[in-house]
Amino acid sequence: MEDLNRALFLWVNASTASPGWLIDLATFFARDVIAIVPLLIVGLWLWGPRSQLTSQRVLVLKTGVALLYALAISWCLGHLFPHPRPFAIGLGHQFLSHAPDDSYPSDHGTVIFTFAIAFICWHRIWSGVVLMIAGAAIAWSRIYLGVHWPLDMLGGMLVGLLSCLFAQILWQYCGTTLLARLSSVYRALFAFPISKGWIRD
What we know:
single chain
């Protein structure tokens, strides 16, 4: 498996002959596209048609729970199965600054794939597919720039799938209560902008 991981990495990883525009594009994917996660979470909670607001907030909370599970699982796996990054062992070429910490599973991959799987399961398939494409772009870019292995990204996807399953199970037990309590806190903290109509109640 390790030999396959290295072979796939070297096949994807950029070289000194790679075009500058492709390096720049990969850097954008690797650093900036992940910002879609907090932007969508905030936007779906604060705005939207009144008829869809409850379902949007259920989506936000389920996704948030799944992300918490995913990050916790990722942290545990990183400590249980430490794995150096490619540049830490002198393999391939590195085009993105990164600390030489453990690489498995990828945090970026874990977050974006958890988000994509959550949208496939609890929103609409097309929106999840779009996010999955964004996840594939992020995964490619971080391998291309030399800071992750292919199996780091696969690990992130599997963690995301497991985390969405755990979130769905938890929601069956306390989802309604969680939504009600967080909605009450939200209305208390954001009473002023709600009263002005800037955001939804």
